[in-house]
Each structure stands twice: as structure tokens, then as C-alpha cells.
Write a structure and sequence with these properties.
Helix content: over 70%
Distance between the termini: 45 Å
Shape: globular
Order of helices and strands: HHH
Number of helices: 3
Amino acid sequence: MDFLINLIIGLIMGGIAGWIAGMIMKSEGSVVRNVLLGVIGGIVGGVVLGLVGIHGSGVIGGIIVDVIGACIVIAGYNFLMKK
């Protein structure tokens, strides 16, 4: 049961992070795309910043890490999809 609750909270935080990252990156994509990239970015942010030794503590710290990861993912997506 705890796993399911943590998964839902992680998805919500990733969604919020994707929305914030979309505004920071001035992404012209849809809100849904930014939220999905934010969920992926939450994982990326945790891994990338974890390799450097930075970890988010609490809700605010987690969202900051997720936003940084989402910005990385949105930048990579925009780079790959640029024509």
C-alpha cells in the first residue's frame, strides 16, 4: 500500500515539476506533454543530481530536483525534435 501511495505522490510531484519546467523553459508544447516529460524528468533529476551528491529533502526539495530534471528532459526533447 505504501508503494502505491509513494507512486501516486511521485507522479503528482513530477507533473507539477513538468508544468513549472515548461514555464521556465518557455516550452511551446502542450501542458500534457510537459507534465509527462516532468514525470520522466523527476527520475532523471534524481539520478543526475544523485550522481553529483545532491538530494532533495522534503516536498520542496523533491520538487526542485524534479524541476531541474524536467528542464533537462524538455531541453533534450526540444533538441531532438528540432527540425
